[in-house]
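Tutorial, part two.
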Amino acid sequence: MDLDIEIDGWPATCDWADLSYRAAEAAEKVAPELANPRLTASVLFTVDDDVQRLNREWRTKDKPTNVLSFPMLLRDELTGLAPEGGPEMLGDLALAWETCRREAAEKGIATENHTAHLLVHGMLHLAGYDHEISDRDADAMEALEIKALAILGLPDPYGDRDNQEHA
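Running the prediction step on this input gives:
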């Protein structure tokens, strides 16, 4: 998958573009439909105000959130996409700096690790996975996230399921 990455308002404390590619590669390993060479996705690293505006405009929720996913292919279109042909836009992700940083601090983890989780989470949403449909769907999505994060050498973010929410 090719990524179009824009970084605005995030500090240069990490190579966010490299983290995006590594998270996408891990997501491709657990959700092979994402490994189609025709796919492209955009990743916007921005600030809470911008994500709040997007959330208000597209989801009628007037608040910032950690990651927004805007899929552009239906699940059956993605899974039926031939590997040959022109580029296909999978969708867009937008991550909010202040929210990501705050959540990482609350969890006692590095912002980079939390961001990797959110990137994987967002990529899975672009692939049609949705934790809000049912508990079974949430469990399936979490299992994929845990596997992808393990590929990145990161621990299970849901290890204490009684005290943590879905991303």
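Residues 2-151 form a domain with the Collagenase (Catalytic Domain) fold (CATH 3.40.390.30). In part three we will examine how such features are distributed along the chain.
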